[in-house]
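User: Hey, my collaborator sent me this sequence without any context and asked if I could get a structure. I don't really work with proteins. Can you help?
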Amino acid sequence: MDVSKAPQEKRMHVSKRVPVSLAGTNREGGEQVKSAVREAAEAATDFSWLSRGDLVFIKPVLNSGHPYPDTTSPLAVGAMIEILKEKGAGRVIVGDMSGVEHVKLSKDRVRGGTRSLMEASGLAAAVLAAGGELYAFEERGWDGFYAEPASAGSHWRGTLMMPNILREVEHIILMPRCGRHVLAGASLGLKAAVGYWRTDTRLEYHRDASTLHEKTAEGNTVATLLDKQRLVLTAADKVLATFGPDDGRVCQPKIGLVIASESVVAHDTISLAWLIEIRRMMPPARDSFRDKSRLLAMLGNRVVVGLLSDWKTALSSEALTKNALNSIGDDRVLNHAYRVLGGRPEIGLEVVNDLVPEDLRRRLSEMSSPSGN
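Assistant: No problem. I've predicted the 3D structure and written it out in structure-token form, which is a compact way to encode the shape of the chain:
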């Protein structure tokens, strides 16, 4: 493989600085957010990887049918589709499979549907209006997935079952959200990989919960993602600051952010810093107990195991240990990602419009540096 064209995570050990672009937004929304998405995306990548007519897959986060920021911003996804089309992309497909609370794929049937949740969240309308296509993994059935191993030495017992559509596309754009997650700690780019997995892979993930955080990071080491993922972009003008993933306190700061990078690790470092900063700025949360409770997280994970399989399996599953979220050093997902995806990057944080205050840029830089933990 040509090293100059290798995925960012594969060559991070030879990169002195990994760029992350930061565009500010205000509360006007609409065209202002779309402009910020364009500014951040075009600063993060030159799109030289995109040839005319290429098939592009956008992976949002749609755990439920709740509106943004419980799910990925429809406005941002629509803006990204327009950018890709302008730059020569052929078909742009947007797809996911929602959480087992709403959608369950079994060998012989499907309960619920991601497509209806796309409609409820506003994502479907935004995708179709921008000229994109909708794709729900479960609609292709149990055999609509293929086996792919994580990196050698991972905590996964078996291969990960990934959707067949990823074999057909040339490029993947990851568009997560910035939010708290009751089990994983945070729902950022690395955590978004769960949406790809078939039910049996999700069962192993939750059942063997002592290494859930490590398996989250390792799920991003499959060859398809390393070879095809080109850009990670999050609209974070709104942040789900507590509890998560589908409920909690929504914060909309006066100045919001759009965060973009070719590296999911570098992206998540800044996105996590932004989540921590938001949590520090907000008044004390009324839902502090459920936001921080380790017992609630452990019980919640066992409920998920029960939904994925049966209650006997749930009762015998491993205990989940919930981590604090006071600094980047608390996050087991991201810290394991540093180990399995090329090391902790030195981030070159680039502000690409005049809405980001210098003191905010400086705080995020300090928080994301190794000495800032």
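In plain terms: The radius of gyration is 19 Å. You can pass these tokens on to your collaborator as they are.
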